[in-house]
Each structure stands twice: as C-alpha cells, then as structure tokens.
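Fold this: Peroxiredoxin-6
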Amino acid sequence: MMLLGDVFPNFEADSTFGRMKLHEFLGDSWGVLFSHPRDFTPVCTTELGRAAQLSLEFSKRNVKLIALSVDGLEEHHDWSKDIMAYNNAEPGSEFPFPIIADDRRELVEELGMLDPEEKDQSGMPLSARCVFVIGPDKKLKLSILYPATTGRNFDEILRVIDSLQLTAHNRVATPVDWRPGDSVMVPPGIPEQEALKLFPAGVYTKDLPSGKKYLRYTPQPNTHQQ
Ligand code: BEZ
C-alpha cells in the first residue's frame, strides 16, 4: 500500500499514448493517476468526460492526467471516442490524456487499486475509483478512494491540487472548503513572533473560549515563501 510521502513506483505500462514509464512521462510535472472500474460504463463515462473538459485547467497547473482500468488498449481507444461524443466535442478531436491498459491487473494489484466488492462477470475484482496525486519529486501527495457506485468530483481534485501546490511552497494550511484567494491558516507549531515575520500581510487570531490562540488566519501568499 502506498503511504503519503512514498516515492511512487516508476512503473512501465501500455497506454493509449504508447508505452510509458511513469517518472519519465511526468518529467517535472505533477501527476494525477486515477483508476475507474470499467470502460463503456455510465459513471466512468461521465467522470472521464469531465476530466477531459478540465484537462486545460490541469495543464495550467502543470499537472499531467493519467487514467487507468483493467480493460485493454482497443477498448480504451474505442471508448475514448464515446467519451468525446458524450462531451459533444468536435468530431475527430483526440482524447487529451493517456489511459493505461492494465488488463493483466499488475498495476492495480501493486498499487492497491482493486475493489474487492466490485467484480466482473467472471468474478474478478475491478479497479476502484482511486486518485493518486504525485508531486514533481515523484512522491505521493494525496490519495482518495471511492467505490464504483460513487462518481468523483474533478473540481474537487483541482481544488486539492491548488492547496497542495500552495502548501508545497508556503508554510500555510488551507481550511475547510478553501478556494484560491481565500485566507489560509497558520499551522500549529509556528510560534507567534515567527508567524508575524513570516506573514507580513498580517495574522488574525480568533478569540476562543479556551483562550488558546490556535485559530490563526493570514491572507493567501502569492509568492513562493521557501
Ligand atoms: C459505472 O461506471 O457506471 C459503474 C461501473 C461499475 C460498477 C458500477 C457503476
């Protein structure tokens, strides 16, 4: 099982963009590797359709998307055309990111992406809806796991990437439902005097019944702090 901070395996796989080695494919980019249970299924079609619509938003953030399921390359190529049609894309436009064909189930097993509750007609478990966000240092920054019956929200995946990229370069944390531009929080562990120096835009501390001064906000920094 992959833990946060682990170096993501530099696996080699066949994809709709050709044979790929993960680290070389990512280069200096961030990566989102996400699996789906099966090609030609309804929820997966809506998910990959949404991811394709948002692919420019991911590239703007220097993030490369990679999808994966236990189907083969031919199915991926045929299904991508359905997804583009579902999106009402211009006829002939290409699906914008690679889909890995893990029909031998090697990667889903190695990376713990299988859903033992969701099986195909022959009783073989399918891939769950996993999301792995990988940093430019190739380490796992975030993982989310959904069952087959619950589609993901790709706006949320963009939102967490905004938080991950901000907090990778600044000693801040983002609160519940944070959106870019909102105030951020000063993490516990930064002493008051240091916080004042680190955040020249100001630190606002909310008074609480406990008298403890842990709810500290500062405007979102725009620049790389470290
Ligand atoms: C779907 O994508 O619609 C789906 C796939 C497997 C199980 C349930 C739903």
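The first strand starts at residue 12 and ends at 15. The chain has a mean pLDDT of 96.
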